[in-house]
Amino acid sequence: MPITPTAKIWMNGELVDWDAANIHILTHSLHYGMGVFEGIRAYETSAGPGIFRLTEHIERLHNSARIMMMELPYGVDELVEATKAVVRESGLPSCYIRPIAYYGYGEMGLNTLPCSVDVAIACWPWGAYLGDDAATKGVRMKISSWTRHEHNTMPPASKTTGNYVNSSLAKVEALKAGYDEAIMLNPQGLIAECTGENVFVSRHGKLITPPITSGALEGITQSTVMAIAADHGYEVVIGDLARSDLYIADEMFVCGTAAEVSAVNSVDDREIPCPGPMTATIAEEYSKLVRGEIPKYKEWVELA
Predict the structure, then answer these.
(1) Where would I find the beta strands (DSSP E) of 53-164?
(2) Closest to 256 in 3D by CA, of 121, 83, 78, 60
(3) What would the pLDDT profile of 163-174 be if each residue is shown by its tens digit?
(4) What whole-number distance in Å separates Cα of residue 95 and Cα of residue 231?
(5) How far lies 58's CA from each of 36, 52, 62, in Å?
(6) Given this chain, do its domains 8-124 and 139-289 carry the same CATH topology?
(7) Which of 77, 90, 107, 290 is least enclosed, having the fewest CB within 10 Å?
(8) 139-289 adopts what CATH topology?
């Protein structure tokens, strides 16, 4: 999706003009892919833009950095406030937010220890990642020929910039083949996740989602969906899934900050009932929850 510029981007403690938020061509992370990032959404609420689970996202950014031995120069509270400032400055009622930490200009080579760590936060208007009708009509999926990272190769628990080369290869392969999204298997041949979403499959009345040991990122939207499911009496199991489990699913959806809750109507041209009753209920509740309309979860929506 194209990016629409907003007024300011936060860079290393200062709000700078959008067009002035530049980096040097020899910025370390541009060459070696060592950086960590988050995707966050702010939704329009009656009290102004509400940023969904902001603190948890920034905590995950810090955890990603820790896994990669990257020491962030700003604490969680500082980055939470900086994110709110960027959203306020944009004047947008709702937006997508991208915090990123990366190794800056001044050192080159694989040794990151002498490198400075820079941090930036931007936001812009962004619609439904998998399409406006993804929750109702569903999306077409294919199993990718690309394998999800193994834990001792590129740690999938860290939301690392370089990790997403793997996802981009899978995404483009799927799009060029006429599908909407790709599902990635781990080296053992089990379902890990999509290129940027967690997977949920319904079989025999239970919702099943792969464990983080399978190579899935521990999703904030995933945990939100699990809370909604529990509220509605749906049993959720964290367990392994083979590709054949998807082919015979009673219903299936994927979820993530960008994709929100999106139904799946087929995998490898095997049709899946869409949208299933659990999918429809969870998607509807999620839409309310992120806008602060469910009192039980109002604390998850942090006003800018």
Answers:
(1) 95-103, 117-124, 139-147
(2) 60
(3) 999 999 999 999
(4) 28
(5) 11, 11, 6
(6) no
(7) 77
(8) D-amino Acid Aminotransferase; Chain A, domain 2 (3.20.10)
Q: pLDDT of 264-292, one tens digit each? A: 999 999 999 999 999 999 999 999 999 99
DSSP at 73: S
Which overall architecture, per CATH, does domain 8-124 show?
2-Layer Sandwich (3.30)
Burial class (CB in 10 A: 0-12, 13-18, 19+), 127: exposed
CB 104 within 8 A of CB 28: yes
Give the E-state strand segments of the chain in sequence order.
8-11, 14-17, 35-37, 40-45, 48-52, 95-103, 117-124, 139-147, 181-185, 191-194, 198-203, 206-209, 235-238, 251-256, 260-267, 270-271, 301-303
**Nearest CA to 167 among 105, 259, 247, 242?**
259
- 8 Å CB contact between 121 and 83: yes
What are the structural domain ranges in the chain?
Answer: 8-124, 139-289
* 123 vs 35: CA distance, rounded Å: 18
Radius of gyration of the chain measured on its C-alpha atoms: 19
Evaluated on CA atoms 30, 36, 41, 47, the torsion sign reads negative
Residues acting as catalytic residues: 159
Q: How does residue 134 score in pLDDT terms, banded at 50, 70 and 90?
A: confident
CA atoms within a 13 Å half-sphere pointing along the CA-CB vector of 61: 31
SS3 169: helix
**CA separation for the pair 214, 94 (Å, rounded):** 33
Token pair recorded at residue 133: 């009708």
